[in-house]
Write a structure and sequence with these properties.
The structure is a homodimer of 346-residue chains. With 346 residues, chain A is an alpha/beta fold. Chain A is built from twelve helices and twelve strands. In chain A, 42% of the residues lie in helices and 15% in strands. A six-stranded parallel sheet of chain A has the order 2-1-3-4-5-11, sandwiched between helices. In chain A, helix 1 packs across helix 3, helix 5 packs parallel to helix 12 and helix 10 crosses helix 11. The N terminus of chain A is likely disordered. Chain A binds a DNA duplex (16 and 16 nucleotides) through helix 2 and helix 4.
Chain lengths: 346, 346
DNA sequence: CTGAAAGCGCTAACAG
DNA sequence: CTGTTAGCGCTTTCAG
């Protein structure tokens, strides 16, 4: 009696099937597939027999079984804040490219900046162990992260310096200094004295860091932040509109507004124009991150520009350094660069 | 001698650890976790002991081991054409929401419309068996798909009617009729006699279907498609600019242009304006799919509008019907609805 | 009501 | 150079 039935048509062949067809043992098949790992040589003859059998059956190794055995999943997880925000697109694309080069698959998750979703993401990667994590946490506390890290040991790279944990690598730290630069430029190059701010005023990153950069630039320049100079915005285009509408109601609004991200900056321009104001005539407006919409809007948007594809590559390479054991110990910090892209809106 | 060492700090607990702590066998733990499956009742006392142990250890079942055993991965894969194209965002978001409700994870992959990437995606889901696939194939041949399907048995739902396979469910079929409607509107409501077209003229979907809709509307109206009325565009904003530049060079260009997707339509508007032309004054321009950029551009873009979140939900629900065995047999076809969103550009 | 045992497909010692 | 064997963590008969 056969040990194993002929596999039903359409069922996926296993290593066993390959071994049977090639007339060798299953472990020999495994060896030729992982030749790099084993130092043991294999006779060219059996190698060919096995390779032929593999081709004939169209065999593909089952990653699930392999993962269970090796305790590696060949998969990394990425949590982004908002799939609609073009800021993330070049980053995701770059991460996928790097992962592909390392022969890894990518599990993408979208948090929509909601705390429950961020926690759920952590639970997911605990149940479905991935080999590494890239995330842009907005709501997660350092405590949540700490609880996760002591349980999981999975390397994490965070996008944005809001996270403070001795074990996680961080790429970011542009918010404060880049905002400072941008606001200084508005003041020194464009001669503004009354500069406003739209961004999160609550704890949600990267709100606070960008606000601090704004504050420092104003102070350095000896300018005061008047009572109504800063309005809250939720980092969406609609949020930018709402915030701008607050400025438009004011008696004596700022002449320039630094907006903490570009979708909001575009919303602000649209709201100003809807109210019959001109940009940059009545308001100079500056955004953060150079997304495609920045050149669709009229006037085109002046922005703080980071090299997003490069950040994506960096973040992924840093993660793979950990995964491959090329880096160990304390979490590292990488500051990414930026420049100002001057267009029409400021 | 202990059968199993105390798990090292930071290592993930297994069902075995839970069983030991609760003083029961591992299979009993499995039973309380899958209570719905088993019909066997479990004494409230052991149930509680086990639940407590689970809580104490913070145990989470290992999905990889479960998958190997059950031959189900609790994961679906989604292949989209272009992560930068806002068309996909509401769809991806809806799919994630539905998947979450079914307790599934989502593996997202970005093909960038490149044949090799699409093939690679198929290989990936063969090695890492997912329970279902949603894809927007652009370059894959029916033959590629057929080869895959006979090998894998994984249910597939395709977005867009370009795919013809007896086993795959399709959601789409709007391209031809919606384009027809849109072009008819340009002719009948706006009085255009000379209507042009930007889209793929090669085989790449959804180019041909939209071109056929355009053709039929022109014929029905007794209008001729002149030699230079249709230009090729690659479905990106830049591609739209290039195509428009061709029209701008012409002696006697069309007065209205139907553009096969909205990023290209925006590129066309930008190119026209850069050349000193006005929209809709010199050219009426109409796009396909209502993306956020449509209301950022000035003039705002008139589009064919599909209910994208609804399409995403539909596509996911159809897939889960297959996965759960609620649907069987022949691939089904679902036509999604559309309407015209009239704005300023046409 | 609960435990023992088999086995999903694979890798990695350990023997030859 | 190659085969045998023991699990990875889990579900699911099969016995009690």
């Amino acid at each position: 009696m056969a040990k194993r039935k002929t596999p039903p048509i359409g069922s996926i062949p296993t290593m066993h099937d390959v071994a049977k067809l090639a007339g060798v043992s299953q472990s020999t098949v495994s060896r030729v597939l992982n030749q790099s790992v084993t130092l043991v040589p294999i006779s060219e003859e059996t190698r060919q027999k096995i390779l032929n059998a593999i081709r004939e059956l169209g065999y593909q190794p089952n990653m699930i079984a392999r993962s269970l055995r090796t305790q590696r999943s060949q998969m990394i997880a990425v949590m982004i804040g908002d799939i609609s925000n073009a800021f993330y697109h070049p980053i995701v694309r770059a991460v996928q490219d790097v992962a592909r080069a390392y022969d890894y698959d990518v599990l993408i998750s979208n948090s929509d900046h909601i705390y429950e979703n961020e926690v759920r993401f952590l639970e997911t990667v605990l149940r479905r162990p991935v080999d590494g994590i890239i995330m842009a946490p907005h709501r997660l506390t350092t405590e949540d992260l700490d609880k996760f890290i002591t349980r999981s040991q999975i390397p994490i790279v965070a996008l944005g310096a809001q996270v403070q944990h001795p074990a996680v690598d961080v790429v970011g730290g542009t918010s404060e200094p880049a905002t400072y630069d941008a606001v200084m430029w508005l003041i020194q190059e464009r001669g503004h004295r009354r500069v406003g701010f739209i961004g999160t005023l609550d704890e949600m990153p990267p709100g606070p860091a960008r606000y601090r950069g704004y504050q420092r630039a104003m102070e350095t320049s000896g300018l005061v932040i008047e009572h109504d100079f800063a309005h809250h915005g939720d980092f969406t285009l609609e949020g930018g509109k709402l915030a701008m509408q607050n400025f438009l109601k004011q008696e004596n609004p700022p002449s320039a507004i630094f907006v903490a991200n570009s979708p909001m900056a575009i919303g602000a321009i649209l709201a100003a124009q809807a109210a019959g104001c001109t940009v940059p005539g009545d308001f100079s407006i500056m955004g953060f991150d150079d997304i495609p919409e920045a050149t669709i809007i009229h006037p085109t948007l002046t922005t703080v520009t980071r090299d997003l594809p490069n950040i994506g590559r960096q973040v992924a390479e840093i993660l793979f350094e950990r995964i491959d054991g090329r880096a160990e110990g304390q979490g590292r910090f990488f500051q990414s660069g930026w420049k100002l892209t001057i267009r029409e809106s400021a």
